[in-house]
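Table 4 source record.
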Amino acid sequence: MLDPDLVAQHRQELRRGTTSLACLALLAHTPDYGYNLLSRLSAISLTIEANTLYPLLRRLDKQGLLTFEWDTTDSRPRKVYATSPDGISLIDLLRADWERLSSALQLMEKS
């Protein structure tokens, strides 16, 4: 039987990259602010904590993969994030990589 801690560690590693890709992909379709993005991620079974999401959004912004504008329509200003053109290019590249990896794993299962 596998050690549950070992399984949790490997799942966490897998989720890190997929969470970045999911954020970029979701924000490419519909710009949004962090709190709503948490709900949207949860709806696709990628539940993460706010204290994980906000540093990720800052990192993606710093890398030029996201942009943001301030929404000042409410009493409290909020950042509305969107995927930048470079972020969209990265989505395309990572999706192609994902498809190649997935295909390779499926081929391995058949042999």
